[in-house]
Design a protein that fits this description.
Rossmann fold
Length: about 290
Amino acid sequence: MTPSQTSGQLAGRVALITGAASGMGLATAERFVGEGASVVIADFNAEAGQAAADRLGPAARFTRCDVAVEDDVAAAVELAKDAFGRLDVMFNNAGIGGAFGPITEIEAEDWDRTFEVLVKGVFLGTKYAARVMIEQVEGGSIINTSSIAGQNGGGGPQAYSAAKAAVINLTKTTALELAPHSIRVNAICPGIIFTPLMHSGDEASAEALMEKMQPLPKRGEGADIAGAALWLAGDDSAFVSGESITVDGAISAAGTRVFGLMDNTKNLHRMVGMAHGTTGQPAKARRL
Protein backbone atom coordinates (compact mmCIF):
# COMPACT_ATOMS: atom_id res chain seq x y z
CA MET A 1 0.00 0.00 0.00
CA THR A 2 1.33 3.45 -0.92
CA PRO A 3 1.39 5.93 1.99
CA SER A 4 -1.15 8.74 1.72
CA GLN A 5 0.02 12.22 0.88
CA THR A 6 -0.05 14.61 3.82
CA SER A 7 -0.81 18.09 2.45
CA GLY A 8 -3.49 19.71 0.29
CA GLN A 9 -7.28 19.95 0.34
CA LEU A 10 -7.61 16.20 -0.25
CA ALA A 11 -4.67 15.04 1.84
CA GLY A 12 -4.97 11.37 2.74
CA ARG A 13 -8.05 10.78 0.59
CA VAL A 14 -8.45 8.29 -2.22
CA ALA A 15 -10.36 8.98 -5.42
CA LEU A 16 -11.42 6.83 -8.35
CA ILE A 17 -11.98 8.72 -11.61
CA THR A 18 -13.44 7.04 -14.67
CA GLY A 19 -12.56 8.40 -18.09
CA ALA A 20 -9.39 9.88 -16.60
CA ALA A 21 -6.98 9.15 -19.45
CA SER A 22 -7.75 12.46 -21.14
CA GLY A 23 -9.84 15.61 -21.01
CA MET A 24 -11.79 16.56 -17.89
CA GLY A 25 -10.98 13.30 -16.11
CA LEU A 26 -7.25 13.68 -16.60
CA ALA A 27 -7.33 17.32 -15.51
CA THR A 28 -9.18 16.24 -12.37
CA ALA A 29 -6.74 13.43 -11.64
CA GLU A 30 -3.86 15.90 -11.93
CA ARG A 31 -5.60 18.41 -9.65
CA PHE A 32 -6.53 15.79 -7.06
CA VAL A 33 -2.98 14.42 -6.87
CA GLY A 34 -1.72 17.99 -6.55
CA GLU A 35 -4.09 18.45 -3.61
CA GLY A 36 -2.81 15.39 -1.77
CA ALA A 37 -5.12 12.63 -2.97
CA SER A 38 -4.21 9.18 -4.23
CA VAL A 39 -6.03 8.43 -7.48
CA VAL A 40 -7.10 5.41 -9.49
CA ILE A 41 -7.42 6.22 -13.19
CA ALA A 42 -10.00 3.98 -14.84
CA ASP A 43 -10.34 4.25 -18.61
CA PHE A 44 -11.16 2.18 -21.69
CA ASN A 45 -8.05 3.53 -23.44
CA ALA A 46 -5.28 1.47 -21.84
CA GLU A 47 -2.33 3.16 -23.53
CA ALA A 48 -3.37 6.70 -22.61
CA GLY A 49 -4.53 5.67 -19.15
CA GLN A 50 -1.30 3.94 -18.21
CA ALA A 51 0.71 6.88 -19.56
CA ALA A 52 -1.32 9.26 -17.39
CA ALA A 53 -0.78 7.15 -14.27
CA ASP A 54 2.95 6.92 -15.00
CA ARG A 55 3.19 10.71 -15.28
CA LEU A 56 1.38 11.21 -11.99
CA GLY A 57 3.75 8.90 -10.13
CA PRO A 58 3.27 6.75 -7.03
CA ALA A 59 0.02 8.46 -6.01
CA ALA A 60 -1.71 7.06 -9.10
CA ARG A 61 -2.74 3.67 -10.43
CA PHE A 62 -4.36 2.68 -13.72
CA THR A 63 -6.89 0.02 -14.58
CA ARG A 64 -8.51 -0.59 -17.95
CA CYS A 65 -12.23 -0.22 -17.45
CA ASP A 66 -15.32 -0.36 -19.60
CA VAL A 67 -17.77 1.37 -17.27
CA ALA A 68 -20.66 -0.53 -18.86
CA VAL A 69 -19.16 -3.84 -17.64
CA GLU A 70 -19.95 -4.57 -14.00
CA ASP A 71 -16.86 -6.68 -13.35
CA ASP A 72 -14.61 -3.90 -14.68
CA VAL A 73 -16.13 -1.30 -12.35
CA ALA A 74 -16.03 -3.64 -9.38
CA ALA A 75 -12.35 -4.36 -10.10
CA ALA A 76 -11.54 -0.63 -10.30
CA VAL A 77 -13.07 -0.04 -6.87
CA GLU A 78 -11.22 -3.05 -5.50
CA LEU A 79 -7.95 -1.65 -6.87
CA ALA A 80 -8.49 1.57 -4.93
CA LYS A 81 -8.89 -0.44 -1.74
CA ASP A 82 -5.95 -2.73 -2.46
CA ALA A 83 -3.56 0.01 -3.54
CA PHE A 84 -4.51 2.79 -1.14
CA GLY A 85 -6.63 1.19 1.60
CA ARG A 86 -9.91 3.05 1.12
CA LEU A 87 -12.16 5.08 -1.20
CA ASP A 88 -13.39 8.58 -0.38
CA VAL A 89 -14.30 10.09 -3.75
CA MET A 90 -15.91 8.49 -6.81
CA PHE A 91 -16.00 10.61 -9.97
CA ASN A 92 -18.22 8.91 -12.56
CA ASN A 93 -16.88 10.87 -15.49
CA ALA A 94 -16.38 8.45 -18.41
CA GLY A 95 -18.27 9.39 -21.54
CA ILE A 96 -18.69 9.01 -25.28
CA GLY A 97 -20.41 11.15 -27.89
CA GLY A 98 -22.74 8.27 -28.61
CA ALA A 99 -25.43 7.74 -31.20
CA PHE A 100 -26.25 10.56 -33.59
CA GLY A 101 -28.42 11.17 -36.62
CA PRO A 102 -32.17 11.52 -37.25
CA ILE A 103 -34.30 9.68 -34.69
CA THR A 104 -35.80 7.70 -37.56
CA GLU A 105 -32.38 6.32 -38.54
CA ILE A 106 -30.44 5.70 -35.31
CA GLU A 107 -29.53 2.06 -34.73
CA ALA A 108 -31.00 0.62 -31.53
CA GLU A 109 -27.66 -0.96 -30.58
CA ASP A 110 -25.95 2.44 -30.79
CA TRP A 111 -28.67 3.99 -28.63
CA ASP A 112 -28.22 1.18 -26.10
CA ARG A 113 -24.44 1.55 -26.02
CA THR A 114 -24.80 5.29 -25.40
CA PHE A 115 -26.97 4.63 -22.36
CA GLU A 116 -24.71 1.80 -21.19
CA VAL A 117 -21.70 4.10 -20.95
CA LEU A 118 -23.38 7.33 -19.86
CA VAL A 119 -26.03 6.01 -17.45
CA LYS A 120 -25.24 2.40 -16.58
CA GLY A 121 -21.64 3.46 -15.97
CA VAL A 122 -22.81 6.01 -13.39
CA PHE A 123 -25.09 3.42 -11.79
CA LEU A 124 -22.30 0.86 -11.48
CA GLY A 125 -19.77 3.38 -10.19
CA THR A 126 -22.24 4.58 -7.58
CA LYS A 127 -23.21 1.02 -6.60
CA TYR A 128 -19.70 -0.19 -5.88
CA ALA A 129 -18.30 3.04 -4.46
CA ALA A 130 -21.25 3.37 -2.08
CA ARG A 131 -20.69 -0.15 -0.77
CA VAL A 132 -17.15 0.75 0.26
CA MET A 133 -18.10 4.14 1.68
CA ILE A 134 -20.92 2.64 3.75
CA GLU A 135 -18.53 0.01 5.08
CA GLN A 136 -15.99 2.68 6.04
CA VAL A 137 -18.67 4.55 8.06
CA GLU A 138 -17.04 7.91 7.28
CA GLY A 139 -19.15 9.04 4.37
CA GLY A 140 -17.78 10.14 1.03
CA SER A 141 -18.43 12.11 -2.12
CA ILE A 142 -19.79 10.74 -5.40
CA ILE A 143 -19.59 13.10 -8.37
CA ASN A 144 -21.28 12.42 -11.71
CA THR A 145 -20.60 14.11 -15.04
CA SER A 146 -23.83 15.22 -16.68
CA SER A 147 -24.05 18.07 -19.21
CA ILE A 148 -25.99 21.18 -20.12
CA ALA A 149 -27.36 18.88 -22.83
CA GLY A 150 -29.22 17.05 -20.07
CA GLN A 151 -30.80 20.27 -18.79
CA ASN A 152 -32.13 21.73 -22.02
CA GLY A 153 -33.21 20.80 -25.52
CA GLY A 154 -30.77 21.36 -28.35
CA GLY A 155 -27.60 20.86 -26.30
CA GLY A 156 -26.62 17.60 -27.96
CA PRO A 157 -27.92 14.64 -29.96
CA GLN A 158 -31.01 12.85 -28.68
CA ALA A 159 -29.38 9.81 -27.03
CA TYR A 160 -26.62 11.85 -25.38
CA SER A 161 -29.04 14.48 -24.09
CA ALA A 162 -31.51 11.93 -22.75
CA ALA A 163 -28.74 9.97 -21.04
CA LYS A 164 -27.31 13.09 -19.40
CA ALA A 165 -30.80 14.02 -18.18
CA ALA A 166 -31.03 10.57 -16.62
CA VAL A 167 -27.74 11.20 -14.80
CA ILE A 168 -29.19 14.35 -13.22
CA ASN A 169 -32.18 12.46 -11.86
CA LEU A 170 -30.05 9.51 -10.76
CA THR A 171 -27.88 11.99 -8.87
CA LYS A 172 -30.88 13.35 -6.98
CA THR A 173 -32.40 9.96 -6.13
CA THR A 174 -29.12 8.44 -4.94
CA ALA A 175 -28.32 11.58 -2.93
CA LEU A 176 -31.52 10.95 -0.97
CA GLU A 177 -30.84 7.25 -0.55
CA LEU A 178 -27.23 7.63 0.58
CA ALA A 179 -27.63 10.72 2.77
CA PRO A 180 -28.13 8.66 5.98
CA HIS A 181 -24.63 7.26 5.38
CA SER A 182 -23.14 10.78 5.01
CA ILE A 183 -22.43 10.08 1.36
CA ARG A 184 -22.99 13.14 -0.80
CA VAL A 185 -23.94 12.75 -4.47
CA ASN A 186 -23.70 15.66 -6.90
CA ALA A 187 -23.39 16.22 -10.65
CA ILE A 188 -21.36 18.60 -12.77
CA CYS A 189 -22.97 19.89 -15.98
CA PRO A 190 -20.23 21.15 -18.31
CA GLY A 191 -20.83 23.42 -21.26
CA ILE A 192 -18.29 23.96 -24.06
CA ILE A 193 -15.15 22.41 -22.59
CA PHE A 194 -12.15 22.15 -24.92
CA THR A 195 -11.41 18.44 -24.71
CA PRO A 196 -10.86 15.88 -27.51
CA LEU A 197 -14.33 14.42 -26.86
CA MET A 198 -15.96 17.82 -27.33
CA HIS A 199 -14.20 19.26 -30.35
CA SER A 200 -13.12 16.06 -32.15
CA GLY A 201 -9.94 17.81 -33.26
CA ASP A 202 -11.78 20.83 -34.68
CA GLU A 203 -10.81 23.50 -32.15
CA ALA A 204 -11.42 26.34 -34.59
CA SER A 205 -15.07 25.37 -34.93
CA ALA A 206 -15.34 25.06 -31.16
CA GLU A 207 -13.86 28.55 -30.76
CA ALA A 208 -16.39 29.93 -33.22
CA LEU A 209 -19.23 28.20 -31.37
CA MET A 210 -17.98 29.58 -28.06
CA GLU A 211 -17.97 33.13 -29.43
CA LYS A 212 -21.50 32.65 -30.74
CA MET A 213 -23.02 30.90 -27.71
CA GLN A 214 -21.03 31.69 -24.56
CA PRO A 215 -21.30 35.06 -22.78
CA LEU A 216 -18.12 34.60 -20.70
CA PRO A 217 -15.09 35.33 -22.94
CA LYS A 218 -12.98 32.45 -21.63
CA ARG A 219 -12.30 29.02 -23.06
CA GLY A 220 -13.73 26.27 -20.89
CA GLU A 221 -10.91 23.86 -20.07
CA GLY A 222 -10.64 20.55 -18.25
CA ALA A 223 -9.14 22.46 -15.34
CA ASP A 224 -12.44 24.31 -14.87
CA ILE A 225 -14.24 21.02 -14.34
CA ALA A 226 -11.40 19.82 -12.11
CA GLY A 227 -11.91 22.86 -9.90
CA ALA A 228 -15.61 22.13 -9.52
CA ALA A 229 -14.87 18.45 -8.79
CA LEU A 230 -12.28 19.46 -6.18
CA TRP A 231 -14.84 21.59 -4.39
CA LEU A 232 -17.42 18.79 -4.44
CA ALA A 233 -14.84 16.28 -3.23
CA GLY A 234 -13.63 18.44 -0.36
CA ASP A 235 -14.86 19.72 2.98
CA ASP A 236 -16.07 23.12 1.73
CA SER A 237 -19.08 21.41 0.10
CA ALA A 238 -19.89 19.26 3.14
CA PHE A 239 -23.53 20.46 3.17
CA VAL A 240 -24.10 20.10 -0.58
CA SER A 241 -25.82 17.02 -1.98
CA GLY A 242 -28.31 16.26 -4.72
CA GLU A 243 -27.18 19.25 -6.77
CA SER A 244 -26.28 19.63 -10.43
CA ILE A 245 -23.69 22.37 -10.78
CA THR A 246 -23.52 24.05 -14.17
CA VAL A 247 -20.03 24.99 -15.38
CA ASP A 248 -20.64 26.60 -18.77
CA GLY A 249 -19.55 30.24 -18.95
CA ALA A 250 -23.20 31.38 -18.65
CA ILE A 251 -24.40 29.53 -21.78
CA SER A 252 -27.42 28.15 -19.94
CA ALA A 253 -28.26 31.59 -18.60
CA ALA A 254 -28.33 32.84 -22.21
CA GLY A 255 -30.24 29.83 -23.57
CA THR A 256 -28.79 26.63 -24.99
CA ARG A 257 -28.63 25.54 -28.59
CA VAL A 258 -25.24 23.95 -29.18
CA PHE A 259 -25.89 20.85 -31.27
CA GLY A 260 -26.02 21.64 -34.97
CA LEU A 261 -24.12 24.94 -34.82
CA MET A 262 -20.62 23.54 -34.59
CA ASP A 263 -19.05 22.54 -37.91
CA ASN A 264 -18.53 18.94 -36.80
CA THR A 265 -22.21 18.60 -35.82
CA LYS A 266 -24.24 20.86 -38.10
CA ASN A 267 -24.52 18.32 -40.94
CA LEU A 268 -25.26 15.30 -38.76
CA HIS A 269 -28.92 15.35 -39.75
CA ARG A 270 -27.61 14.01 -43.06
CA MET A 271 -25.63 11.22 -41.38
CA VAL A 272 -26.20 8.47 -38.84
CA GLY A 273 -23.72 6.54 -36.73
CA MET A 274 -21.89 6.28 -33.44
CA ALA A 275 -19.06 8.29 -31.85
CA HIS A 276 -16.89 6.51 -29.29
CA GLY A 277 -15.06 9.57 -27.97
CA THR A 278 -11.48 9.04 -26.79
CA THR A 279 -11.75 5.29 -26.23
CA GLY A 280 -9.49 4.60 -29.20
CA GLN A 281 -12.36 3.00 -31.12
CA PRO A 282 -13.07 4.62 -34.51
CA ALA A 283 -16.35 6.42 -35.11
CA LYS A 284 -18.72 4.96 -37.67
CA ALA A 285 -21.00 6.98 -39.93
CA ARG A 286 -23.04 6.56 -43.05
CA ARG A 287 -24.49 9.30 -45.20
CA LEU A 288 -28.26 9.34 -45.61
